[in-house]
Amino acid sequence: MFFRSSFIARNLCLSSLHGRNFASAATDFRIPVINFANFRAAKSDSEKKETANQIVDAFKTSGFIYVSDHGIPHDTVSSVFRKSAEFFKLPEEAKSQLAWEDPRSNRGYVKIGRERVTQSADAQEISNLRNKAPDFKESMEIGRDWDSPWKNMWPEERTCHNLHVEMMRSIALGLDLSEEFFDRKVDQQCHNLRLLSYPSIRRSILDGEGQARADYGTLTLLFQDSVGGLEVMNPHTGDFVPATPIPGTIVINVGDLLARWSNDLLRSTLHRVVAPPAKMISSAESMTPARQSIAFFSNPNFDTEIACLPNCGDKPKHSPINTEEYIVGRLAATYT
């Protein structure tokens, strides 16, 4: 039964994209492709530090990177996309029996129009936005398998956690902290795996801008299909720049909590998903193609206090905040 398939595992392989950059019209905006094998297989501390500096430099400027040679097998990623598509093809009645219920668990099926992506936390403003422009996607949220109060609606194995730990180690080195600085702060796997489906839809329904958002946790690992749709805001100009899918890579971006942790040294950049080019179905109407993506939202341990890190400034810009309280509060506003 496809519910038992293995989800995103540890790493993937790509060919020779190391060193390529994808830029907007503004020459100072880059989403670099970073070969993470240079960190994972480094033979010296200096080799590790070189890659760590590349990652941190990118997170300081654009907040986004493409990661190649990360070790998650291509076959595993393909299997997840296939099983995700099978799930979303189930009848609405069957999917609705697994409905998302509570922001403390953040598990289950989210039907089209229920989530409203915005940076606002005001419930009335979110309600008005939802009524004006529903979010035309559906998703399935999956959390830790061993939580006793909150069981997965669709429990699956996954190992993106390992990549998250390694990325946080690279960030620690890039910030001149000990490599293991974050290990005990991210070891409880308080993450969420989100399967996303954007059905084919009439273009006239989607008139208007995409819904800009930033993510809540430390890092988001995004797997795109070939259709894409992700756009990243150039913080210097306010323009949105396509993050064009690159086969074999993962798009990784800084979340709000990591930005706060670093005293905003690392950038949590606004981004959105927009409709791909539509095909004409009549003289007056066109349809967008269906598309999928898979996001792994990485978080600190829920009991971790997020306060200004060493080496990130003498004057904290944010008050300390508890991880769980922050994330649950944002989720409650998003789905209310």
UniProtKB/TrEMBL annotation:
<dbReference type="InterPro" id="IPR050231">
    <property type="entry name" value="Iron_ascorbate_oxido_reductase"/>
</dbReference>
<dbReference type="GO" id="GO:0016491">
    <property type="term" value="F:oxidoreductase activity"/>
</dbReference>
<dbReference type="InterPro" id="IPR044861">
    <property type="entry name" value="IPNS-like_FE2OG_OXY"/>
</dbReference>
<dbReference type="InterPro" id="IPR005123">
    <property type="entry name" value="Oxoglu/Fe-dep_dioxygenase_dom"/>
</dbReference>
<dbReference type="InterPro" id="IPR027443">
    <property type="entry name" value="IPNS-like_sf"/>
</dbReference>
<dbReference type="InterPro" id="IPR026992">
    <property type="entry name" value="DIOX_N"/>
</dbReference>
<dbReference type="Pfam" id="PF03171">
    <property type="entry name" value="2OG-FeII_Oxy"/>
</dbReference>
<dbReference type="Pfam" id="PF14226">
    <property type="entry name" value="DIOX_N"/>
</dbReference>
<feature type="domain" description="Fe2OG dioxygenase">
    <location>
        <begin position="189"/>
        <end position="300"/>
    </location>
</feature>
<keyword id="KW-0479">Metal-binding</keyword>
<dbReference type="GO" id="GO:0046872">
    <property type="term" value="F:metal ion binding"/>
</dbReference>
<keyword id="KW-0408">Iron</keyword>
<keyword id="KW-0560">Oxidoreductase</keyword>
<comment type="similarity">
    <text>Belongs to the iron/ascorbate-dependent oxidoreductase family.</text>
</comment>
<protein>
    <recommendedName>
        <fullName>Fe2OG dioxygenase domain-containing protein</fullName>
    </recommendedName>
</protein>
